[in-house]
Amino acid sequence: MKKVSILVPESSVMQAIADPQYLFSAVNQFLVMKGKTALFEVQLVGAGKEVKLNGGMYSVHTDRQLGDSQRTDLVVIPALFGDMQRAIADNRAMVPWIQKQYQNGAEVASLCVGAFLLASTGLLCGKKCSTHWGFQNEFRALFPDVEVVDGSVITEENRIYSSGGANSYWNLLLHLVEKYTDRETAILASKYFAIDIDRESQAAFAMFKGQKSHADSEVRKVQEYIEQNIQDRMSVDDLAGMIAVGRRSFERRFKQATNNSVLEYIQRIKIESAKRSFENSRKNINEVMFDVGYTDTKAFRSVFKKITGLTPIEYRNKYNKQAPAQ
To answer: What dihedral do alpha carbons 11, 14, 20, 22 form, nearest 10°?
Structure first.
């Protein structure tokens, strides 16, 4: 029997508590229906017997409290809600409990921005992690010793798991079901819950918001120039010349400030503009390509797919139902 402990933190997302409880309980039923023994003992663990969420709108009654000494096999940290630093502070009592369970051999899985609470334990130091694409810059600023994997839905390293944003956590939960049972049961669960079992990237859903919460005003000046001149071709040397510094110094400062190389930043700004055009206009692929400063169809397609995980046509057909197919 695998003991699964789903944490119930303050300021957590109710659905990210209910979904794993529902999934592991449903898998137990699937196993019993096949003549096998139920595998998971699922329990909700919190600081007290009752945890109120969403300003008291919901009340969750826990099965066990942090003071209980019972060992568990899997700790699930649900997504948090609101201000992340405040959420971490509100749940600091959970940190030693998570650390102790991991030291005793438990696996730990964070769902979406539950990664913030997981990282606050120190267990992610020097390891890879996924989180919601919209919170990656804040996560990097708070936890510079953790390697955030852009676009990834699932990371796994040394008994620690993390997932991408929002409903991406279902892919991590199915991954754990497959690990603990078998592929057949995981596929059955994916069909039951109507989840694409093998989705590996959240890139198609991500919106690039240039990192400007830094103190380098000259780098910010260059960022604004790039964003305002997406139709132009621009070189790193030209951009370095704007602020009168050498190329190597400029590249180092830009990377330090934005977490992107200059070329990556230019590409992501251009592709973000292309995505908006595909979503909201009836322009064809070539028109959008020229609008964002590309003249080589193959190069544009390659960069677009690298960043979004989809070809330009696939992206437009996915998000703009009014556009004619090409």
So the answer is: 160
Does one domain contain both 13 and 100?
A: yes
Handedness of CA 209, 210, 216, 217 (dihedral sign): negative
**Do residues 148 and 116 make contact, with C-beta atoms less than 8 angstroms apart?**
no
Please name the residues in contact with 1: beta carbons below 8 A apart, sequence gap of 6 or more.
38, 39, 40, 41
pTM as predicted: 0.68
Reference 152, options 195, 115, 103, 194; nearest CA is: 115
CATH number for 294: 1.10.10.60
Mean pLDDT by 10 residues, the chain (326 residues): 95 93 96 94 94 84 87 95 93 95 95 95 93 88 90 81 84 90 88 77 59 86 91 92 93 90 92 87 91 94 89 86 55
Q: Are residues 61 and 174 in the same domain?
A: yes
